[in-house]
Amino acid sequence: MRHSTPAAALATAIGVAIGVATDAAGQAQFLDRLPNMYPMNSLPDPYESQDNWVDLPDGREWGSTAGVDIDPDGSHIWAIDRCGGNSCAGSNLDPILKIDPDGNVVTAIGAGLFLFPHGIHVDSDGNIWVTDAQGPNPDNPASAGMGHVAIKLSPDGEVLLTLGRPGSAGDGRGPLLNTPCDVVTDADGNIYVADGHGGQSMIAGPETVARIAKFDRDGNFITSWGRLGSGPGEMRTPHAIDIDSMSRLIVGDRGNNRLQIFELDGTYIGELRQFGRPSGIYIDDDDTIYVADSESLFANSQNPGWITGIRVGSLRTGIVDYLIHGAVEAYPNGSNPEGVAVDAAGNVYGAVVSQGGAFIRSGR
């Protein structure tokens, strides 16, 4: 197995395109010149990881966490917990938790609203957006009339807006959603939903939803782009989504083991493959990107040779600097977070789904 080289060698491999693309045209040229990546595994890890740092109330234990984001104050953390398991169907627990830097849960909201809370985004006003990536299961009456939505909540849990129709799956052509994975808002309040969780299955049919749906700040549908596939602008599960400082939409196209980059109107710019199999992404103000790879070691991940963890690098240069393994007692060989976020102090939070779930903090 051929392993990765340090960042300097990667820069040599990519060539003179590194660091010279500052406008959209130059960036597109830079992206097109990137080579096919061999596994980026042998990278420095200057982080120490900590588990069990949150004091969950009433004897509660973490289930699958999946999503995490940072409050506008830069220090409080908002995390998803799938009600102590991997589903909230029939549960009266609040799946959305606000946690202070000392690990105390200071707010819990969202009970009864979600089946499978998945992606979370905290906007600049402090409102909480969460997607529900499942729909009704006829074998579970508790799931009737639920799922296929993205919900905006106030910090105290009031429902402010619902995108999609609870319990109704869309076909990828309008405002109805179908197992939406993630959501983000831009500076003008427009809303972008990474829609479609089933595309990475090798038996996914052509009707499988795999798109970005765009709404205005009031929830009116504007447009969508993308379809199932592996070509430019096509997707096989758009699992994560964020916006960088250049107002470009970065999509974690998990089933294709790549990040795709778009203008906010859907114009395709290019792709990056050196960050692994992206389940979650978080972008700092300086365009440092943290990419959570939760699946590369799975037998069916379709990303052979790569390992899981959080890869840290730059969207401006394409260089990957670090790989956070997240090793703790419950995950001695490294954890595999699905969601990732970074607070103002530089602590990196990994929301782990597998092996029962965990919420791991890594600091330098």
Explain the overall architecture.
The protein is mostly beta strands and 364 residues long. It is 5% helix and 34% strand. The strands form 6 sheets. A 4-stranded antiparallel sheet has the order 1-24-23-22, with no helix packed on it. The protein starts with 6 loop residues before the first helix and ends with a strand. It contains 2 helices and 24 strands. The protein has one domain: Neuraminidase (6 Propeller), CATH 2.120.10.30.
Secondary-structure topology with pairs:
Layout: H1 7-14, H2 24-32, E1 48-50, E2 68-70, E3 77-80, E4 96-99, E5 105-109, E6 117-122, E7 128-132, E8 149-153, E9 159-163, E10 180-185, E11 191-195, E12 211-215, E13 221-225, E14 238-243, E15 248-253, E16 258-263, E17 268-272, E18 280-283, E19 288-293, E20 309-314, E21 320-324, E22 337-342, E23 348-352, E24 358-363
Antiparallel strand pairs: 1-24, 2-3, 3-4, 4-5, 6-7, 7-8, 8-9, 10-11, 11-12, 12-13, 14-15, 15-16, 16-17, 18-19, 19-20, 20-21, 22-23, 23-24
Care to give the gist of this entry?
The protein has 364 residues and is mainly β.
Strand order of the largest sheet: 1-24-23-22
Strand proportion: 25-35%
Task: State the helical fraction.
Answer: under 10%
> Which overall shape is indicated by the principal axes computed on the Cα atoms?
globular
Count every beta strand, where a strand is a DSSP E run of 2 or more residues: 24
**Distance, first to last CA:** 30 Å
Q: What fold name stands as the CATH topology?
A: Neuraminidase
The CATH homology group name: TolB, C-terminal domain
